[in-house]
Amino acid sequence: MDQDKEPKPVEQEISRRDFFAKLGIGSLGLATVGTLSFAYRYLSPNVLFEPSPIVNAGNVEDYSMNSVTLLPTEAIYVVRLPEGIFSLTAICTHLGCMTAWKPELGIIACPCHGSQFSREGQKLAGPAPRPLPWLRTWLSDDRDVMVDRATHVPPFQFLRI
Ligand code: FES
């Protein structure tokens, strides 16, 4: 008889109705989260954040006369001649390889298919369809050479210094 008086463990029984109610609430929560995440993506601006095309190439006095300087991370040449200073893209106009200045030959050469350019970017040989574009170049107030890689200018527009 004593055994009958001991409290029995409370069994947590879930009725069929409670089970489906909880299942419905859970499904509704998942649907709400999914809808909110899609709404967030839809309302977020869909833009690419690219680095500025404006390059500070350093002080103009760092470029000696008759020099061709490749800035590999910017993919540009800064060229200083007696006529002035200017910048060129270092990307070959054939298929986009990075070119290299060959001081012993006095040319800019592309290692991929052999295009050659003068130090003013004019095409000398190879399959490149166009000369290397000149880039907008100016001096800052601190006499730093500034280059806009996104803006091409007609060739032989030297920046007189
Ligand atoms: S990519 Fe320069 S010659 Fe082809």
> Average pLDDT across residues?
92
Q: How many DSSP E strands?
A: 10
Biggest β-sheet: count, sense, barrel? 6 strands, antiparallel
Beta-strand residue percentage: 25-35%
Helix-strand pattern, N to C?
HHEEEEEEEEEE
Q: How large, in whole angstroms, is the Cα Rg?
A: 34 Å
The assigned structural class equals alpha+beta
Write up what this structure looks like:
- With 161 residues, this protein is of the alpha+beta class.
- The chain has two helices and ten strands; from the N terminus they run ααββββββββββ.
- The protein has a six-stranded antiparallel beta sheet with strand order 1-10-9-4-3-2, with no helix packed on it. Strands 5-6-7-8 form a four-stranded antiparallel beta sheet, with no helix packed on it.
- A hairpin with a 4-residue loop joins strand 2 and strand 3 (76-81).
- 16% of the residues are buried.
- The mean pLDDT is 92.
- It binds FE2/S2 (inorganic) cluster.
- FE2/S2 (inorganic) cluster binds at residues 92, 94-95, 97, 110, 112-115, 126-128.
Summary of the model, kept short:
The chain has 161 residues and is an alpha+beta fold. 20% of the residues lie in helices and 31% in strands.
Based on the model shown, name its key terms:
2 helices, 10 strands, six-stranded antiparallel beta sheet, four-stranded antiparallel beta sheet, alpha+beta, 161 residues, binds FE2/S2 (inorganic) cluster, single chain
List strands and helices in order, with pairings:
Elements: H1 2-5, H2 16-43, E1 54-59, E2 67-71, E3 76-81, E4 84-89, E5 100-102, E6 107-109, E7 116-117, E8 123-125, E9 134-139, E10 144-153
Antiparallel strand pairs: 1-10, 2-3, 3-4, 4-9, 5-6, 6-7, 7-8, 9-10
Bound molecules: FE2/S2 (inorganic) cluster (FES).
